[in-house]
């Protein structure tokens, strides 16, 4: 054998690649990390928001996703009637657009 043939023989892989299951472990770990750091907290936040929306009632002060503050004067199936401003203007806002509860209304 010549020197070139010997060098080529040494650089070729010795055998087949490793076990495919072992090669998938990093991908599985990456997916698990993404789930625990991204997906699970977002689900928890979404459930808390849905719970807050289901507990809203007349008299509660809320803020919308657009930054408008108002007081709920009526609750419908898919939206709230909210009083905004000093002139008692009432607007209907979809339930999904209420972003936060500012202050609970009086129980009386």
Question: Please, could you describe this protein's structure?
Answer:
This protein is α+β, with helices and mostly antiparallel strands and 108 residues long. It folds into two domains: 17-55; 57-108, SH3 type barrels. It is 42% helix and 27% strand. It contains two helices and five strands, in the order ααβββββ. The chain has helices spanning 3-11, 20-55; strands at 61-64, 69-75, 79-84, 89-94, 98-103. Strands 4-3-2-1-5 form a five-stranded antiparallel sheet, covered by helices on one side. Strand 2 (69-75) and strand 3 (79-84) form a beta hairpin. The radius of gyration is 30 Å and the shape is rod-shaped. The termini are far apart.
Number of individual domains: 2
CATH topology of the largest domain: SH3 type barrels
Computed structural class? alpha+beta
Low-confidence stretches: none
- What is the beta-strand fraction? 25-35%
**Oligomeric state of shown chains:** single chain
Strand segment count: 5
> Termini, distance in Å?
99 Å
Question: What secondary-structure arrangement, pairings included, does this model have?
Answer:
Layout lengths: L2 H9 L8 H36 L5 E4 L4 E7 L3 E6 L4 E6 L3 E6 L5
Antiparallel strand pairs: 1-2, 1-5, 2-3, 3-4
In short:
With 108 residues, the protein is of the alpha+beta class. 42% of the residues lie in helices and 27% in strands.
Q: Notable features of this structure?
A:
alpha+beta; 108 residues; 27% strand; 42% helix; 2 domains; SH3 type barrels
């Amino acid at each position: 054998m010549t020197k070139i043939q010997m060098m080529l023989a040494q650089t070729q892989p010795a055998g087949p690649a490793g076990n495919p299951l072992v090669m998938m472990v990093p991908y599985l770990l990456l997916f698990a990390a993404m789930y625990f750091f991204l997906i699970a907290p977002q689900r928890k936040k979404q459930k808390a928001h849905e719970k807050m929306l289901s507990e809203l009632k007349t008299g509660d002060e809320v803020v919308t996703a657009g930054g408008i503050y108002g007081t709920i004067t009526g609750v419908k199936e898919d939206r709230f009637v909210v009083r905004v401003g000093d002139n008692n203007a009432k607007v209907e806002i979809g339930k999904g657009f209420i972003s936060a509860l500012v202050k609970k209304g009086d129980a009386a």
